[in-house]
């Protein structure tokens, strides 16, 4: 855990330092489009760092949420209709997670492929990296410095891409499974007073015991509803700040990217 966190932070901070230095050196030059392009990269990395910091602050709460979902959502015995709801929810989660991961990692891949295509057929002294590193020594385009820097940038870009979408995937999975649990609860409440169940129970016991049995079921469903509401509150406490920051930075990114498209 500590090594993974250190490794992730190191890679992301290296990526941020490279982009911030490039932004500093580009600022004021007659290259406004390039400045906006680098700014978009910086905002994306800041967004990733914000996600990590927020979820580190709420690390214990997030662990409790995941353990609760594991115990009460994913490892329970369901009847055929309830299992159908869960299976549909899993398929929906798989689709959303795959789509978002595809676009996030696809973006990272384009950053890596672009210099490979551009460098094809070029002289060794004229090669470019995925992200510009402005160093006074021109030898960074020569072997082995170029290969080392290229590998380092690929690793950092991959870390940024993974951290960019993994927390959103977690929130998507938890939200969809919570919605599925509310549907299951609705189904159970609608079938509390089952006629066939009444006949089977009445053959073995009295009416008062049947009423107590149904009262216990209804009470359990109400308690489950209260637990789901509390679970939603915990989700909101953990992810509200993250979602607020993400929406705010997304708005800025959309404006900057829109300007780049129109240029």
Describe the structure.
The protein has helices spanning 2-26, 32-57, 59-74, 80-119, 145-190, 195-204, 207-262. Helix content is 83%, strand content 0%. The protein contains 7 helices and no strands. The model has no long low-confidence stretch (mean pLDDT 86). The protein has one domain (1-262). The protein is mainly α and 263 residues long. Helix 2 (32-57) packs across helix 5 (145-190).
Give the tags:
263 residues; mainly alpha; 7 helices; 83% helix; 0% strand; olfaction; membrane; sensory transduction; transducer
Helical amount:
over 70%
Number of strands: 0
* Domains (count): 1
Biggest sheet features: none
Strand content: under 5%
Spans where pLDDT lies below 50 across 5 or more residues:
none
Q: Supply the helix-strand structural class.
A: mainly alpha
The ordered H/E elements are HHHHHHH
> Could you tell me how far the N terminus lies from the C terminus, measured between alpha carbons in angstroms?
44 Å
Rg for CA atoms: 26 Å
Number of helical runs?
7
Categorize the overall geometry. elongated
- Mean pLDDT score: 86
How are the SSEs ordered, and which strands pair?
Layout: H1 2-26, H2 32-57, H3 59-74, H4 80-119, H5 145-190, H6 195-204, H7 207-262
Helix pairs in contact: 1-2, 1-5, 2-5, 2-7, 4-5, 5-7
Task: Give a quick summary of the entry.
The protein has 263 residues and is mostly helical. Helix content is 83%, strand content 0%.
């Amino acid at each position: 855990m500590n090594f993974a966190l250190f490794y992730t932070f190191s890679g992301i901070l290296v990526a941020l330092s490279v982009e911030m230095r490039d932004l500093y050196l580009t600022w004021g030059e007659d290259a406004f489009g390039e400045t906006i392009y680098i700014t978009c990269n910086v905002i994306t990395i800041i967004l990733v760092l914000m996600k990590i910091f927020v979820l580190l602050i709420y690390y214990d709460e997030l662990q409790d949420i995941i353990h609760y979902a594991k115990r009460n959502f994913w490892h329970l015995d369901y009847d055929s209709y309830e299992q159908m709801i869960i299976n549909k929810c899993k398929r929906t989660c798989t689709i959303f997670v795959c789509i978002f991961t595809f676009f996030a990692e696809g973006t990272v891949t384009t950053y890596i492929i672009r210099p490979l295509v551009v460098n094809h057929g070029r002289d060794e002294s004229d090669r470019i990296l995925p992200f510009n590193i402005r160093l006074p020594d021109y030898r960074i385009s020569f072997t082995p410095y170029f290969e080392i820097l290229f590998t380092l940038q690929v690793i950092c870009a991959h870390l940024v891409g993974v951290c960019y979408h993994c927390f959103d995937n977690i929130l998507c999975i938890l939200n969809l499974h919570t919605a599925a649990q509310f549907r299951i609860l609705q189904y159970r409440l609608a079938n509390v007073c089952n006629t066939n169940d009444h006949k089977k129970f009445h053959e073995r016991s009295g009416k008062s015991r049947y009423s107590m049995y149904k009262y216990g079921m209804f009470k359990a469903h109400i308690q489950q509803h209260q637990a789901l509401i509390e679970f939603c509150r915990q989700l909101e406490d953990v992810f509200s700040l993250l979602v607020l920051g993400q929406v705010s930075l997304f708005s800025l990114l959309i404006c900057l990217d829109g300007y780049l498209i129109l240029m």
